[in-house]
């Protein structure tokens, strides 16, 4: 199996996270131009209007779990443990995070957002447990 397959979920997740900066920036510029807020609001992100805050929060959330996700993918790649199970888990995580982004920037409904976040979180935990099992020689 091609070990670089483990890196594609990371590429997709990174691109989606970086894409969120575009609508966030547009919303920020629009709110300042419309006079809804002063540009200084964005200095410390205090009082940021919901129009841009939902993107800011989505980016922050993607980066929080993304650190552990990227570290796990790179560790599996570097150690030669990029198994089919880890690749499937990586794709499952990315799919869950894509759904999470969509909920976050569309309805932002917590009854939907939290369960999707928890699914992604538990996939990431399982990923790390499987990776640890690989490192320990318990699975191939």
Q: What does the model show?
A:
By secondary structure, this protein is an all-alpha fold. The protein has helices spanning 8-19, 21-33, 41-44, 50-79, 84-105, 110-135. It is elongated, with a radius of gyration of 18 Å. The mean pLDDT is 96.
Write a brief caption for the model.
With 140 residues, this protein is mostly helical. It contains 6 helices and no strands.
Share of residues in strands: under 5%
* Count of discrete alpha- or pi-helical segments spanning 4 or more residues: 6
**Name of the CATH architecture:** Up-down Bundle
Helix content: over 70%
Largest sheet: none
User: Any idea of the CATH class?
Assistant: Mainly Alpha
Enumerate the spans where pLDDT stays under 50 for 5 or more consecutive residues: none
Whole-number count of domains: 1
Mean pLDDT: 96
Name the descriptors:
140 residues; Four Helix Bundle (Hemerythrin (Met), subunit A); single chain; mainly alpha; elongated
Per-chain topology:
Blueprint: H1 8-19, H2 21-33, H3 41-44, H4 50-79, H5 84-105, H6 110-135
């Amino acid at each position: 199996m091609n070990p670089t397959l483990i890196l594609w979920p990371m590429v997709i997740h990174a691109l989606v996270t970086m894409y969120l900066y575009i609508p966030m920036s547009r919303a920020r510029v629009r709110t300042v131009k419309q006079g809804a807020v002063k540009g200084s609001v964005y200095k410390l992100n205090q009082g940021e209007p919901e129009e841009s805050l939902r993107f800011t929060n989505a980016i922050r959330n993607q980066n929080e779990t993304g650190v552990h996700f990227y570290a796990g993918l790179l560790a599996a790649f570097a150690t030669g443990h990029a198994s089919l199970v880890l690749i499937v888990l990586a794709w499952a995580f990315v799919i869950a995070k894509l759904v999470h982004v969509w909920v976050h920037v569309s309805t932002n409904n917590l009854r939907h957002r939290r369960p999707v976040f928890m699914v992604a979180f538990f996939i990431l935990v399982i990923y790390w447990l499987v990776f640890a099992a690989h490192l320990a020689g318990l699975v191939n």
